[in-house]
Design a protein that fits this description.
This protein has 244 residues and is an alpha/beta fold. The chain has ten helices and ten strands. It starts with a strand and ends with a strand.
């Protein structure tokens, strides 16, 4: 079992060096993590998270245009000139199968990139939560759960997912020596874990998302354990664990 479990509430809450030697799960429920998971399930070759449009263009310039798609959003909306935005429902098999996806999003892609010094870095969502728990249960290292957050602020849906993972790892009972971040996340899930969609729907980000785009993405991202897959970051590229 892991030495310790900690939670960072935003992607800006840690120094990159803090992740060295740790197993890391990055959580962005609405919507980057859910989109990455969906894309890989639907046959995408890989996902390359980037920090901005400039980096996306640079990477695209070194790839065959037939083999990649530019994906991402700015302030929730698909970036002009990109083929796909950041709705998981856009990442269909028809669109993404065998493609490399270059992904540029407001919060999630940057959070994943900042986590690159972790011993193992995986993408966690409600969609693949149990697979992440299974992986972390075997860890002998410190575990860090990173919530991507929204606009440098805590996002309750990410913290709730972190709590669900901790709850699963600890068998539903705190051991008494967890960090404050882990205790808060655990307690949030313990209180609201039976009403995940309700909590997300009433979160700041959830309310904004429904107002702008309807509730299709929110309902989809609130589902638990529909994909038994583990997206893992290695050398800047995300693939399913079995493919690495």
């Amino acid at each position: 079992m892991a030495k310790s479990i900690d939670v960072f509430s935003t992607a800006q809450a840690f120094a990159e060096d803090e992740l060295k030697g740790c197993d890391v799960a990055v959580i962005d429920v609405l919507r980057t993590g859910s989109s990455i998971t969906t894309a890989l399930v639907n046959g995408a070759k890989s996902v390359i998270p980037v920090a901005d449009m400039g980096e996306a263009s640079k990477i695209a310039g070194n790839l065959d245009a037939r083999n990649y798609l530019l994906c991402g959003e700015h302030n929730g909306y698909r970036i002009d000139g990109y083929q796909i935005g950041n709705s998981p429902n856009e990442f269909s098999e028809e669109k993404v199968k065998d493609k490399t996806l270059i992904l540029n999003t407001s919060n999630g892609s940057g959070a994943i990139r900042r986590s690159h010094l972790g011993s193992k870095v995986m993408v966690a969502t409600f969609l693949n939560m149990e697979r992440v728990i299974t992986e972390l249960r075997e860890s002998q290292k410190d575990i860090i759960l990173i919530c991507a957050g929204t606009r440098n602020r805590l996002a309750i849906e990410d913290l709730l997912c972190a709590g669900a993972i901790i709850h699963g790892l600890l068998g539903g009972k705190l051991h008494g020596h967890e960090t404050d971040g882990a205790k808060v996340a655990f307690s949030l899930f313990e209180k609201f874990g039976e009403n995940i969609e309700y909590v997300i729907r009433n979160s700041n980000h959830g309310e904004w998302l429904v107002e702008k785009f309807g509730d299709e993405d929110l309902v989809y991202c609130s589902q638990k354990n529909i994909y038994p897959v583990l997206p893992v970051l290695k050398e800047g590229v995300i693939k399913l664990a079995d493919g690495i």
